[in-house]
Amino acid sequence: MASYRIRQYREQDYDAVRTLFARGILEHAPAGYRHILRSARAQLGLLILFAAVRAAAGYWVLGLAAVALALAATWPVVRSFSTSYVQEALCTDLCDISTSYLRAPDSCFWVAEAGGSVVGMVAVAPAQDPAERGVALELKRMSVSKDYRGQGISKALCGEVLHFARARGYGAVVLSTSMVQVAAQRLYEGQGFKKVGTFSPSLLGSLLCFQIFHYRCDLPGGTA
């Protein structure tokens, strides 16, 4: 097991952090694609497409070809969820990390370093939901390099956020993660987070049965 240390973000970490975040998000696109294809709605739609083309053309091969084309067209649409999310993050808070997290109140950004390289990251900021403002902080941008998973880095980064929020008197930490990030869900639930809601990121996401899970961890002794 490689040794690592958790420290606060520095300006020289900028490129490594942005690359780590983008890779971590984009690697979930195939899982999202498989999840959507396994949904009853998608399978019914493909069946109807096959039947309609076969009935119109009179050849089952053309029906199969239509299904294949539909599958091929669905992949870039599903991947766009990840790419759009990455682009938005890189153009907003991850564009100027120091301003977003180190100079803002009740915010911080940590990295995990191993062998002189950044292999993990996490941020915390005031909750975006107005109902949670002043009550909860939000865990954001959690990511660990694939080569360093299973070594307790994610748990340690999560612990930094919980300690930070508790030290400032907040009553809870909230976060959002996609339905296909199963390992992340297990990590958060193991740290005391409970699922408190689900939502779709867009109308298209709703049609494709893609959901985001909202989690909350109540902190003992919080007074904010």
Automatic annotation (TrEMBL):
InterPro entries: Acyl_CoA_acyltransferase, GNAT_dom, NAT_camello-type. The keyword Membrane applies. Residues 65-220 form the N-acetyltransferase domain. The chain crosses the membrane at residues 44-75. Pfam families: Acetyltransf_1 (PF00583). Gene3D superfamilies: 3.40.630.30. GO terms for molecular function: N-acetyltransferase activity. Keywords: Membrane, Transferase, Transmembrane, Transmembrane helix. This is NAT8 acetyltransferase. The lineage of its organism: Eukaryota, Metazoa, Chordata, Craniata, Vertebrata. The gene is Nat8.
